[in-house]
Specification:
With 364 residues, the protein is of the alpha+beta class. The protein has three domains: 99 residues, wza like fold, CATH 3.30.1950; 100 residues, Roll (Outer membrane lipoprotein wza fold like), CATH 3.10.560.10; 142 residues, no CATH class. Helices cover 23% and strands 28% of the residues. The protein contains seven helices and 20 strands. The chain has a five-stranded mixed beta sheet with strand order 7-6-10-8-9, with helices on both faces. Strands 12-11-15-13-14 form a five-stranded mixed beta sheet, with no helix packed on it. Strands 17-16-20-18-19 form a five-stranded mixed beta sheet, with helices on one face.
Length: 364
């Protein structure tokens, strides 16, 4: 018993710190191996025990024996342990606390920069894993993520409401052995780029013959501070200005959609590391804003830049400054775009094989 307590205490001292996003929800947090529970009893016998959940889901209560707590919620476990402690010690005062949450391995593959296996804490979420994997590729479809669980359950996740509305439920917790797959946007009906404030900026797949209003509803743009009277569609060398309240054109493969903002900001898009809306500073140059967006990607070029103002392409002369609402787009060649697409197809095929292998290994 003393040895088990020492091992649990040592593990508590050595375990990696996992930041929490708030107080644990006792009804939702599911106990598992390597969670550490502190049991304190003040009675005829005083007990202060660090009990680690074993691989088979048990913890040991001194003077009683093993109690199964794995796979049930924290509140259910506390109730179960409370009944056992009353039965064994009948104390006037006691305490049961979750001293430390467990660390486990999860896998991620698909359209991420560093696919592989990563350690997560039990209170960390899907987007934490994506960030650990170097972030999503520029053409990852974040509305169609799949999580494969050891239990055989398959979970489909649209994480975009987490970015647009802060809906934490769209960014679920992960469990040990999960395999997460981020697919690229589907090219069956086309791909578009979308930029604006309060939405995920980058590539999206078209949902069939999707219109601009349907896209705005899907991305929940109507809840953002956008200028709906001057939405811009960049189609090849053409610029189409759309009043979202009265016009509803169908989007085409390769379109770039820009939802201007009323706020004092500059939108940077195209082949930059982190496209989006950035605060307006009169003294900042075009290149300074591109730098704010992380600079061009390895396929982007600062020599191929377009600037748009009020729905029109402009050229800045020496001494000219950017204005609030301007849009900067960094381009690459058609050859590079086709090359990127075929490279992604090859990666997805490889990822599918990896998913099959991992699921087969986990379910054996």
């Amino acid at each position: 018993m003393k040895k088990a307590r020492q091992l649990a205490t040592q593990r508590l001292q050595q375990i990696q710190y996992t930041p929490l996003d708030g107080v644990i929800d006792g009804d939702k947090y599911i106990l598992g191996p390597h969670d550490i529970i502190r049991i304190q009893v003040w009675a005829a016998v005083t007990i202060d025990e660090m009990a680690e959940v074993t691989p088979d889901g048990m913890i040991v209560i001194p003077g009683y024996g093993a109690v199964e707590v794995g796979g049930i919620s924290w509140n259910q476990a506390k109730q179960k342990l409370t009944e056992t402690i009353h039965q064994v010690y009948n104390p006037k005062n006691f305490s049961i606390t979750l001293a430390s949450v467990r660390i486990f391995w999860v896998n991620i593959t698909g359209a991420v920069n560093l696919p592989g296996s990563y350690q997560l804490g039990a209170t960390q979420r899907l987007w934490d894993l994506v960030q650990l994997a170097g972030g999503a590729d520029g053409i990852a479809d974040l509305s169609n993520i799949t999580i494969y669980r050891k239990t055989g359950e398959t979970l489909s996740v649209d994480i975009t409401p987490y970015f647009s509305q802060g809906e934490i439920s769209a960014n679920p917790y992960l469990f040990g052995g999960d395999v997460v797959f981020l697919p690229p946007v589907s090219s069956q009906t086309g791909m578009i780029q979308v930029y604006g404030t309060g939405i995920r900026n980058g590539y999206y797949g078209l949902n069939g013959d999707e219109t601009i209003q349907q896209l705005a509803q899907r991305l929940r743009v109507f809840t953002q501070h956008s200028d709906f009277s001057n939405v811009q569609i960049l189609r090849g060398d053409d610029i189409i200005s759309v009043n979202l309240m009265t016009e509803n054109p169908t989007l085409l493969d390769g379109d770039m959609v820009i939802f201007p903002t009323h706020l004092d900001s500059i939108i940077v898009g195209g082949l930059v590391v982190q496209g989006g809306a950035y605060p307006y500073y009169p003294e900042f140059s075009t290149y300074a804003y591109i730098a704010m967006a992380g600079g061009p990607t390895d396929k982007g070029s600062e020599n191929r830049i377009s600037i748009f103002r009020n729905g029109e392409r402009i050229k800045l002369k020496p001494g000219d400054i950017l204005r609030p609402g301007d849009v900067i787009i960094v381009h690459h060649s058609t050859f590079d775009r086709v090359k990127d697409f075929f490279e992604m197809v090859a990666r997805v095929v490889s990822s599918s094989i990896t998913i099959y292998y991992l699921i087969d290994r986990l379910t054996r």
